[in-house]
Amino acid sequence: MTESGDYKRILARLGYYDYQQGLIYRNMNQKGGWEAHLANSRSFILEEIAYSKPSKITVLGSGWLLDLPLAELVEMVNEIILIDIVHPPQVREQTAGFPNVRLIEDDVSGGLIAEVWKKAGRGVFFKKRDTLKDISVPVYKLYDPGTVISLNILTQLEVLPVRLLEKRREINADSIMAFRKKIQNNHIETLKEHHSLLIADVKEIFTYSDGTVAKDNTMVADVPGETVVRRWRWDFDMEGVDYHKKKSYMDVIACKW
User: Fold this and answer.
1) Are 201 and 152 in contact (CB under 8 A)?
2) Per-residue confidence at 18, pLDDT binned at 50, 70, 90?
3) 18 by DSSP, 3-state: which?
């Protein structure tokens, strides 16, 4: 779906390509600060796949493959499908040598980016006061995916749509929260339909240079406590890349259905 020229132009207008490059640059700038998180993600996946022994895996939000133990997985399963809205050229090159790996470019929010662009992105800049009732949040459907792995994508699905909506419309905080929760809960509904693994950040904790601490709840979805099998800390920005006066880490959970 996202391979069309129109979709790629929408992504460019929304700043997706800068956002994608920013993730790899952030990893490089953290001087190894991400390594524990990436190792935890990879080990969780390997343990669960070794236990359940699926013949097929579908990864949602494969990204730069930093947190996916691809070399090990290709020896463990017959087929691996990597789905992301755009696969970087480096990932295409990296996976070219694996005959049982297939890349698919698709919007794993079910087309939400195109929906938001259609309703709020076109035309001249203006502010429209509303509650987002005209924007539908779809549920992404998968057919015969095998084991599904949602890989650090849950809280990222909302980033570009919310950023655009906040620029173009006057929306109260309650409406934004309801919109975010719908996006995340719909993703959870997709996972619940299959044997699935989820790795996602729950909250980001900021520490400022004056000692002040603040918290942002990044996960607003309803995730049953019994599905959570692991928790760890992700040193997300301990070098103060975004703002030199603050650093941050994230609490992460790993779940399975």
Assistant:
1) yes
2) low
3) helix
CA 169/CA 148 separation, integer angstroms? 35
Task: Kindly state the average pLDDT of the residues 12-24.
Answer: 64
What's the pLDDT band for 127 if we cut at 50, 70, 90?
A: low
- The helix/strand/coil state of 106 is coil
Round to whole Å and give the CA distance between 75 and 89.
23
Provide CB contacts within 8 A for 181, sequence distance 6+.
220, 221, 222
Contact between 119 and 135 (Cβ < 8 Å): yes
Question: How many CA within 13 A on the CB side of residue 139?
Answer: 11
Confidence of residue 20 (pLDDT cuts 50, 70, 90): low
Q: Are 56 and 146 in contact (CB under 8 A)?
A: yes
CA quadruple 174, 180, 183, 189: dihedral sign: negative
**pTM of the complete model:** 0.88
pLDDT > 70? residue 3 = no
CA 217/CA 232 separation, integer angstroms: 16
| Mean pLDDT score, 149-174 | 89
Q: C-alpha angle 235/211/33, rounded to 5°?
A: 15
Number of neighbouring beta carbons within 10 Å of residue 64: 17
